[in-house]
Automatic annotation (TrEMBL):
One of its GO terms (molecular function) is oxidoreductase activity. Pfam families: Aldo_ket_red. This is NADP-dependent oxidoreductase domain-containing protein. It comes from the Eukaryota. Residues 6-291 form the NADP-dependent oxidoreductase domain. Belongs to the aldo/keto reductase family. Keywords: NADP, Oxidoreductase.
């Protein structure tokens, strides 16, 4: 199978916003859409897809759709329900890629909503990846997804699925940007035939506001702004490109997929216009040198979400708030 290296991200896009953003993305030429059951915007995406299919401008096989198991459904008996609902919401008979959204399962909720107990996210401490993976494989057998993968998994977690599964994971979607380049994981994936897909590819500038709004702030966390980095700004100036385009171009040259999110049609189009210039090896190396390793990680679990830290499959090494 082939996956377009760039897709449109939709996290934090409301149903109404994705109606505009996904339409603009298809118009601009994107043929890869990233969503999730938990984003609650799949029906908006489904509406746009139906319009495009009905008009004859797009065939189902021309677009690559990714969705994810709702963390409240990360249990063998609930995974198929999560996918069935996603398919219904999207108006599709199959997705191209179905992934486990997060290694940590949350307490089951029929509607797929996070629940909170004593002010903290209720987690399911019994998450069993190998048992869940068997159901993921069944989803392929049943033709409900073409392929299966994971998100936010460590190498150890991926290796366990490779050793115990019948179908190997083909993809791991992780936080990845110029300040957090995940070299070991990318290397492993390249050697083992997994696609690495970068979320937050331009640094997720909306993350701080989101964390404040949802009470998931990690105390003392300093947010980084790769779009303001002098190295990035200088390269952008040279090519007459925006910092976002330079950050995306760097990742594409690094050999990873990118799924920048925008709800603004102008920025949606801008983010796709990265194939008409190329970083020289010196520029590429200068950007490679901006990697901060773990210190560059922006997605952490604090505040109301700090309960996930006690889950046996939780893995983010450094956390300042519990
Ligand atoms: N698997 C996971 O756990 C996980 C976690 C996070 C994200 N994701 C996926 O990855 C996608 C991307 O990650 P993300 O949304 O966190 O971060 P991102 O794509 O790095 O950044 C998105 C933010 O940047 C702004 N933006 C987009 N294009 C821009 C441009 N050209 N110039 C300036 N600002 C721009 C957007 O605002 P506007 O909308 O106003 O343009 C939005 O606030 C998500 O949408 C989601 O599909 C997955």
């Amino acid at each position: 199978m082939k996956m377009p290296i760039i897709g449109i991200g939709t996290w934090q896009g409301t149903k109404d916003e994705v109606l505009v953003a996904v339409d603009a993305a298809l118009e601009a030429g994107y043929r890869h859409i990233d969503t999730a059951h938990v984003y609650k915007n799949e029906t908006g995406i489904g509406t746009v897809l139906k319009k495009w299919f009905d008009s004859g401008k797009l065939k189902r096989e021309e677009v690559f759709i990714v969705t994810k198991v709702n963390p409240t459904h990360l249990r063998p008996e609930h995974i198929e329900k999560s996918l069935n609902e996603s398919l219904e919401n999207l108006g599709l008979e199959y997705v191209d890629l179905f992934i486990i959204h997060n290694p940590v399962g949350w307490k089951y909720s029929e509607e797929g909503n996070a629940t909170f107990e004593n002010g903290l996210l209720a987690v399911d401490m019994t998450t069993d990846h190998v048992a869940c993976w068997k159901v993921m494989e069944e989803m392929v057998d049943k033709g409900k997804t073409k392929s299966i993968g994971v998100s936010n998994f460590t190498l150890k977690q991926v290796k366990r699925l490779m050793e115990n599964g019948r179908i190997k994971p083909v993809y791991n979607q992780v936080e990845l940007h110029v300040y957090f380049q995940q070299k070991e994981l990318v290397e492993f994936n390249k050697k083992n035939g997994l696609v690495t897909c970068a979320y937050a590819p331009i640094g997720s500038p909306g993350l701080e506001t989101f964390n404040e709004r949802f009470g998931s702030q990690v105390e003392g966390h300093v947010y980084l702004h790769p779009m303001e980095d002098p190295v990035v700004l200088e390269i952008a100036k040279k090519y007459g490109k925006t910092p976002a385009q330079v950050l995306l171009r760097h990742l594409v040259q690094y050999g990873v997929g990118v799924i920048p999110k925008s709800s603004n049609p102008k920025r949606v189009k801008e983010n796709l216009e990265i194939f008409d210039f190329e970083l020289t090896s010196e520029e590429y190396e200068n950007m490679k040198a901006l990697d901060k390793g773990e210190a560059g990680r922006q997605f952490q679990r604090g505040g109301r979400f700090s309960s996930t830290i006690k889950h046996p499959e939780f893995h983010i090494p450094q956390i300042s708030s519990t």
